[in-house]
Request: fold
Amino acid sequence: MLLTHRAYATSRGYTLYRQSFASWLFSSARLCLIAREFQSTSIVAELCDLKQLPNEDEANRVTIFDLKTWEKIGSAKTGQNPDAVIYDPATKRVFAFSGHDGTATAIDAASGRVVGTVNLGGSPEFAAADRQGHIYNNLEDKNEVVEIDSKTLEILNRWPLAPGESPSAMAIDLRRRRLFIGCHNKMMVVMDADTGKAVATPAIGEGVDAARFDPSSQLVFSANGGGTLTLIHEDSPDKYSVIDNVQTERGARTMELDEETHRIYTVTADLGPQPTEPHEPPPMVPGTFRLLVLGQGTDR
Reply:
């Protein structure tokens, strides 16, 4: 765990510095966010109006723990290899997306009980909820987005992502009804959340895995494993401008945004050589796991 702080000036006034992951986690519990990077599993969960937070483990279960004590208080069975997990305020359900069997498991947040399963018809990646009863999810192997009714668990629409390929990241502008979908052919497809129409395709860095949208600044962020953070400004609902590619570190691709401080949090470690097997992550050097924090100007 790195405890030292190192700052890097950027052309747009964003600063990157490191701090202890553990100290951030326990001092900023109000974010209701925990992010961990394992050798084979990327975990991000956000449940800002709950008192308990689910976390994915490596035994095809969602583990539920208390946000105040950080103690385990329950678990729920998911599909094979759960990855993304989101909370839907409209139904007060947690949705866990499993890549190996192409399912989404719906869990009642209050009781921890599994209420249903959605067969997605492809390999899911990140997802987003519009807080109006709709869940959107990337299908990486199908190059499409599925729209799910979060109450009935029915698939409402399947929308192609062309020219985007191999979608991974997803964020949403709730007011303007736009989905931001990071694709591995180094573009972000901006999609109308009501019609499925692609309205823009700004360029992003290599190795995208996470995206976030800051409604106050109208900035879209793309965390790229190649070692950059792409900043895109939403000029209008259908027009977007790339304003910067901030240097981070190789492997920093899981991300979260604090909308109050406008800080970006991402994690990485010293990485070994890239395996020849497609989509296989490089090995991490033990003891080098660290949190990277990006803020505006002199925000420290």
In short: The first strand starts at residue 14 and ends at 19.
